[in-house]
Amino acid sequence: MDDSLFAAISVGVCLAAIALIIIAPWRRVRDEPRLERDIETRLLLGENPEDVAAAADAAEADKLARRPDLPVELRRRPPD
């Protein structure tokens, strides 16, 4: 009986540890903003993440440069 009790406690501790490993990150994952659909698609199709990030940064800089409501010092010109 001593061996079966030890085995039961060990299994219980292992299951609790696995549950914590799986469940604990979910809140942080849900709080992250979702990727844009085209970026997600490009990454899933196997494009280089650095190229995708560079293109996304260039697009964001272009959007900021075209916003007339921002002061001039906050507008960044997209790299040529």
Report on the architecture of this protein.
- By secondary structure, the chain is mostly helical.
- It has 2 domains: 1-32; 36-80, no CATH class.
- 66% of the residues lie in helices and 0% in strands.
- It is built from 4 helices and no strands.
- The longest helix has 22 residues, at 2-23.
- It is elongated, with a radius of gyration of 24 Å.
List the helices and strands and how they pair.
Blueprint lengths: L1 H22 L2 H6 L5 H8 L4 H17 L15
Keywords:
single chain; 80 residues; mainly alpha; 2 domains; 4 helices; elongated
Number of β-strand runs: 0
Number of helices: 4
The Cα radius of gyration reads: 24 Å
Category by helix and strand content: mainly alpha
Strand/helix succession: HHHH
Low-confidence stretches: none
Task: Sum up the overall morphology in one term.
Answer: elongated
Distance between the termini: 75 Å
The portion of residues assigned to helices is 55-70%
Largest sheet: none
What share of the residues does DSSP label as strand, in percent?
Answer: under 5%
Quaternary structure classification? single chain
Number of domains: 2
